[in-house]
Structures are given as structure tokens and as C-alpha cells.
Write a structure and sequence with these properties.
The structure is a homodimer. Chain A contains twelve helices and eleven strands. By secondary structure, chain A is α/β, with parallel strands linked by helices. The two termini of chain A are about 35 Å apart. In chain A, helix 6 packs across helix 12. Chain A has a domain of about 150 residues: 3-Layer(aba) Sandwich (Isopropylmalate Dehydrogenase), CATH 3.40.718. Helices cover about 45% and strands about 15% of the residues of chain A. In chain A, strand 2, helix 2 and strand 3 form a beta-alpha-beta unit. Chain A has an eleven-stranded mixed beta sheet with strand order 3-2-1-4-11-10-5-6-9-7-8, with helices on both faces. At the A-B interface, helix 8, helix 9 and helix 10 of A face helix 8, helix 9 and helix 10 of B.
Chain lengths: ~325, ~325
């Protein structure tokens, strides 16, 4: 199994990307990892380790797409950009998956252009795992599509359901539609129509879920458009940070709370770890004819390790094949 | 100053509603508080207190709108429902504001029907104060309008700006548009159009804010449609609860963390208090020809006290007059 990694994408590229790749290569010798990017810089980073694992190779590329570039335009113009080349390796069958921590827009545009959509899928979606009080939950779309139609939400639900069943071993995954009330007449025009459509497909649709049901972990898959999903995701990220600051303030009011804070530190670390997005690794771009995993822009080595693991599991579970099959079946039923 | 309070609305009505009203009446003898609802039950609740404050009166009403009722229909049919009667008192000039903790839909429908909209305001909005790392922020619309147009968002921004300036003494309040990116080309069709329109009105528009900027408290007013706003609000409420559960789990892993937890307890209480929605009191329904304050369905006496305080401050600041003026001026500028 071969995984192409965009070595130049992300706030801490290439250092953390290379570090995460080396650590994975050592822990999983059965994987072949291809670092795509500036050969010299990657070699320099690899030189920091005592030995370069034999299952790491470099595929050189001369360009980089930055956060300032317009994603779709940059992907078309910079044909030798690391993220474009990494996706091309998958397209040409030279790799089984691509992992990128660069601009989400560029990673999406490159995968969409080079890998293409599964037949019948109208809009691919970004699925992101978010921490809950119970088990982590898949939120999708987390930002690929700001404006969608009810039928797009239905496909998000189907793809998310397959992903959670195959990769996260959730049996008969519970799917919830993010809404502002439990009743099926509640919500905006989009979700009212989507609710009716979701009742007709073969998934375990549990109805609407409200904002408060998300942290409670009431479902396995939370479906929404990319506008709402991205706001939820970033709000959760922001809150994890703000709560940390607010807790620190609250714990340093007196000598008593300060002493207590020192004692609860291991517990707090556990709590922070549970909220840390890098623990949950990369977000699959679902609906493409290939495995593309997007990692957070601020990915450290741990996040990259997790993203590579997600790529491996998505390949092993044949998520692309399962989505293709499901959409084909639905289409046949309609005919 | 006379404030009508729907004594029958809310999960803990009439007990907590009456309790909050009595406590306010004692603390603020200059207010006249009118409890609207089942006379016998209110009298029984009032009987629990050693003396009934002289500034509390009862206005009897025979019906109640429950959570199961369809808001608009119920408001039309149950003409003697407590929430309808309380709003009618404001309409007829017999009260200066109404406070209700019952079904938000019913409170909104009653206020819309009886008080009516300020001339030129197309859609009233619910403004809710949410806790942030810095000072509390006004989020609107928090759920009144699931589908809106760009011009509605502009009016929400104007009304929110006036409210924060007049009631919360924020000078030149910073207004942010809730979006999924900083750039003005980001977002769905609605917010892209709203962004351009917001640049043209006389408010302190600071551009887009992302989900992560909300808990950071980057602006005074966060503008969004009622679908997004309600999801944000309920997500925050749910998280405050879930974080409590997760923290408790993290703090009871060993004797050391348990001891520490006991010591940080006062700090934790402070933290919880900061997140507690009842601390921030009622949510004004902005854009109506009268002051209507909606309190959370799970309101306790403290929440009711805060909601009455918000009503008082909204009357004193003449928010309704200021909104009316601003909209008239904008209209004249256009002509």
C-alpha cells in the first residue's frame, strides 16, 4: 500500500510533515510512504533522523500552493505543485491515497480535478471527526459546499454512513440531520426538504438533531451543508481553546485553586487530549474516485500520523468501492 | 415602569416565575410587576412568601399555550392565553414590556401579532447574549427566521448595534458577519451578498467572523440567519453541559485528581457561572413596536430576574425608539 504525502502543505511543512511520516514509516513497515515536494528540503528534514526508513521515498515537485493562492486557479496553473503531483500519483495508480495538510481549498480542487467524482455523486463532502461526550462523531459536510440542495445532503448522509460503518466499525450508524428543532416541519427550506428525502433512502436516519445533541454524541453521522458544518467545526475548535483560557483564569483565583489545579493537571491533559483535533487525524474527502485525506492546516507530526492512518484504513475498507456500489444500487432502484 | 410577566410560560412555571418576580419586586421597588396567568395558582405561589410586595399585581388569564401547541395557530385561537394577554397589555399601553419564558415560537407569534413590526423592519430577530472569553456578545438572529434575505441580515446588524450601544454601553459596537472565511468572497450566496450590503450602512462593520472568533469574543454583535444562530446557541448550551461531564470524568481518574477537583471547586463554579445562560437573562425580540423579552424555557428565578432587568434596561434606553429612528433615516437617505 502506497500513500503519497504532500510534504509542502501546512503551517509546519515540511518539518512536521516529514517527522510524522518518518514515525509512521517506522511503526508501519508494511506501508510505502512517498513524500512529494522540494527534494532538497525534504532530504534535509530526513537528515535530522538517525536513519531514513527504507519505506520512505521522495517524489520531487518544484511548486507550492500557498494560502494566498486562489485554490482552483492555482491547481490549474501550478501543474508541478506538491498537492497536484501527489494527487496525480493516485490518479495514475502510482499511489493508493493522498494526504495533504495544505490549503483545504487547494487540496479539494486538486482531488476533484485529478481524481474526479464517483459516478452519480453530485458533490463530494469533507467528513470531519469531532469529539463528543460519548464516541467521536462524523460531521459532514465540514466545508466543501457552502450552498447545497436537499439531494446533496442525502448523498452526504449515505457516504458518511458507509464511512462510519466501514472505517469506524459502527454497526448501522445513526444519521442525524442538523436542524433547529426535532419536528420534521422545523428548519429552513433546505433541511425540511432534505428530511423527507432522507426518510426514503436505506440508511439509519434518526431524524433531526439540534446543536445541543452534537456534543452529547447522539448520532454517528451529523449531516449539514458545508456552511453550517464549517461554523460548527471552527466553533468547537475555538471553544476548546477558549475553555482552556477560561479554566486557567478560574483556577488561578486563590492559592487553594492553584494547588488544586496542579493536582488535576493529569485530568486536564486527558480532557484536552479528548478535544484535540489532531487526535482524530485527517478528514476524508468523500465521493471521489480515490482516497484523499485532508489534514488540518496547523497539523503537527501527530496529526500527520493520524491522517496517514485514516488513509490506510479508508483504503483497506474500500470506502470508494462501497460508495460507488451504493450509488449504483440507488440509481437502479430509481429506474 | 410597568412590566407584564407571563407567569404560566416555561418548564418551571409558575413557581420559578413568581419567585423571580418577587425577588425583583423587593430589590427594585420602583418597578410595577404584573403577573399574568391563573389567578389561583399565582396567589398560591405568592402565598409561599412572608409578604407579597405591594408593587406586584395579578392580571388573570384562563388559558395557557403549551410546547405542543402550534405557535401561530395557538396565539390566534387562545385569545386568553397568558402570553397573549401579557402582550396585549403592552399593546394597550397598560404595560411597558412583556417577559415570557414559555414556548419561544408562541412568545414571538404573540408579540408579532399584537405589537407589530417597526415601520420598515421586514423581519424582527431574537438577540441572545452569549458568553465569550472576553465580554458577552450579542448573537442575532438566534432563531426567529430560518430563511432570510441579505437585507434582513443588514437590519439585524443595525438593530443589534443599537441594542449593544444603548443597553450594554458598547461604544461603536463591532459587528461581525458569521461566515466560513475572512475574505469577502467566502461563504454561501446569502452572506456574500449580505457582506456587500453591510459595507454600505452606517454601522461599525468589521467583516466576516468565523466560528472560532465567536468564543474568542472578537466582536460585540455576531450577525447570522436564525438557522445558523440557533445551532450556534444550542451547541454552546450543549457544550457547557458536556464539558462539565467530560471534566468530571477527567477529574475522577485518581485520588490525586479527586483531591485537586475538590480544591478547584470554587474556580469551577466561577467557570460554570460564566457559561450559565441564566446569568445573561432574557433575549430581546428586536424590531417590534414594543419591548418583548424572551427567557429560556428552562428559566429559574435567577433567569427571570435577569430577563426583567433586561426589559427595564431596554425600556430605559428607548431601544424601540432608536431602531425606529435609524430605519427612518436610512429610508430617507435612500430616497
Amino acid at each position: 500500500m502506497k500513500i503519497a504525502i504532500d510534504a509542502m502543505g501546512g503551517d509546519y511543512a515540511p518539518t512536521e510533515i516529514v517527522k510524522g511520516t518518518v514515525e509512521t514509516a517506522i511503526a508501519a513497515p508494511e506501508l510505502e510512504l512517498v513524500l512529494v515536494g522540494d527534494k532538497e528540503r525534504i532530504e534535509k528534514e530526513l537528515g535530522m533522523f538517525s536513519t531514513k526508513p527504507a519505506n520512505i521515498s521522495i517524489f520531487p515537485s518544484s511548486e507550492v500552493i500557498g494560502m494566498g493562492d486562489h485554490p482552483a486557479t492555482a491547481v490549474r496553473q501550478k501543474k508541478d505543485a506538491s498537492v497536484v503531483v501527489a494527487n496525480r500519483l493516485v490518479k495514475e495508480g502510482k499511489a493508493d491515497a493522498v494526504v495533504s495538510a495544505g490549503s483545504t481549498g487547494a487540496a479539494m480542487a486538486a482531488s476533484l480535478l485529478l481524481l474526479g467524482r464517483v459516478k452519480g455523486i453530485k458533490r463530494p463532502a469533507i467528513g470531519t471527526m469531532i469529539p463528543t461526550q460519548k464516541a467521536p462523531m462524523l460531521l459532514l459536510d465540514a466545508g466543501a459546499n457552502a450552498d447545497v440542495k436537499p439531494e446533496n445532503l442525502v448523498q452526504f448522509a449515505q457516504m458518511g454512513s458507509i464511512y462510519m460503518e466501514k472505517v469506524w466499525q459502527r454497526k448501522n450508524p445513526r444519521v442525524g440531520l442538523v436542524n433547529i428543532g426535532e419536528e420534521e416541519t422545523k428548519g429552513n427550506e433546505l433541511v425540511i426538504a432534505a428530511h423527507q428525502a432522507l426518510k426514503k433512502v436505506t440508511i439509519n436516519f434518526c431524524g433531526n438533531i439540534e446543536g445541543r445533541d452534537i456534543p452529547a454524541g447522539e448520532v454517528d453521522v451529523a449531516v449539514c451543508d458545508g456552511f453550517v458544518g464549517n461554523i460548527i467545526l471552527k466553533l468547537l475548535e475555538g471553544l476548546a481553546k477558549s475553555f482552556g483560557v477560561m479554566l486557567k483564569d478560574a483556577f488561578t483565583t486563590s492559592w487553594r485553586t492553584k494547588l488544586g489545579a496542579a493536582l488535576v493537571l493529569p485530568g486536564l491533559r486527558l480532557f484536552k487530549q479528548k478535544l484535540d483535533p489532531s487526535e482524530y487525524g485527517g478528514a476524508p474527502l468523500l465521493g471521489l474516485k480515490g482516497v484523499s485525506i485532508i489534514s488540518h492546516g496547523s497539523s503537527n507530526a501527530k496529526a500527520i500520523k493520524n491522517a496517514i492512518r485514516v488513509a490506510k484504513e479508508t483504503i483497506e475498507a474500500d470506502v470508494v468501492g462501497k460508495i460507488t456500489e451504493r450509488i449504483r444500487e440507488e440509481k437502479q432502484c430509481e429506474e
